[in-house]
Amino acid sequence: MGKVLGDVLGLAAGVAISPLPIIAIILVLATPRGRLNGLLFTAGWIVGLSALGAVMLAIAKPSNASTHGHPATWVGILKLVLGALLVLFAARQWRRRPTDPSQAQLPKWMAAIDRLTPVKVFGLALVLSAANVKNAPLTLAAGAAIGSAGIPLAQQIASLAVFVVIGSLGLLAPLVVYLFMGDRAAKTLGNWKDWAARNNVAVMAALFFVLGLKLVGDGISVLTS
Predict the structure, then answer these.
(1) What is the pTM of this model?
(2) What SS3 state is found at 185?
(3) Model confidence pLDDT, tens digit, residues 73-114
(4) CA nearest 91: which of 201, 225, 221?
(5) I need a surface site. Which of 36, 95, 132, 134 has the fewest CB within 10 A?
(6) Cα-flanking dihedrals φ and ψ of residue 41, to 5°?
(7) Where are the alpha helices (DSSP H) in the chain?
(8) Number of other residues whose CB lies within 10 A of the CB of residue 10
(9) Can you give the pLDDT at residue 41?
């Protein structure tokens, strides 16, 4: 289990460092029902990551993802494809970066966050966790790594749980600040939001590139060993 945790911790950190979802939860916490909406947003994020990872584990078991403790060929191909996609996304993000970071614009849907119902807040978090162009490939890669490790089901579930917890730290931090820092929370979260907004594109491009190369390397290693 130790080896598979080593494989997925980097992927989980990549999921955790997601500027747009961090900005989204800070905006959610600023709504009149901030406590409820913040908890629902975090719950939706955790459910999304868990469900996508569980789907990958379910696919891996009947598909013989592991052969004598070694990942199957299709696992290597999957990692190679996911890694290549992330590298392409990195190039796309870098080309679209603003020349002046202070002029960076947030997605238009963020302007409507204060009007979302609790159910829609939960659904937004599901989308941002499970259907995000960065998080989905990383979660699928983590699920494939866990499913191909040849470890018992209980250890697979525990490994996925560790991945989800680490991958949720980016949202848990603002939530903890909001719940426990009282009047100081607004200023702290505002500073975090401003930084994330200015550096979103650069951070995402760097993460796409580094994690994409890691997955490409992992895929090549599986296919050539």
Answers:
(1) 0.83
(2) helix
(3) 777 888 888 889 889 888 887 887 766 666 667 778 888 888
(4) 201
(5) 95
(6) -65, -45
(7) 2-16, 19-29, 34-60, 73-95, 118-130, 135-147, 153-167, 169-180, 185-224
(8) 15
(9) 96
Contact yes or no for 49/133 (Cβ under 8 A):
no
Residue 125's Cβ-side half-sphere holds a number of Cα atoms within 13 Å equal to: 30
Phi-psi region of 182 (alpha: psi -120 to 50; beta: other; left: phi over 0): left
Per residue in 61-79, pLDDT (tens digit) is 655 565 555 677 777 888 8
Cβ contacts of 198 within 8 Å, gap of 6 or more: 101, 102, 104
Sign of torsion over alpha carbons 219, 222, 223, 225: positive
18-22, 121-125, 137-141, range with greatest mean pLDDT: 121-125
Cα separation, 158 vs 222, whole angstroms: 23
Distance CA 27, CA 218 (A): 37
Structural tokens at position 147: 């499913």
Alpha-carbon torsion 16, 18, 20, 26, what sign? positive
| Rounded alpha-carbon distances, angstroms, from residue 185 to 26, 122, 188, 198, 221 | 10, 22, 5, 20, 46
Q: Which residue has the tokens 């947003």?
A: 41
Separation of alpha carbons 50 and 52, rounded Å? 6
Q: Quote the CA–CA distance of 138 and 75 in Å, as a whole number.
A: 13
Instruction: Tell me how far apart the alpha carbons of residues 111 and 20 are, in angstroms, rounded to a whole number.
Output: 13
- Which residue, 220, 61, 223, is CA-closest to 150? 61
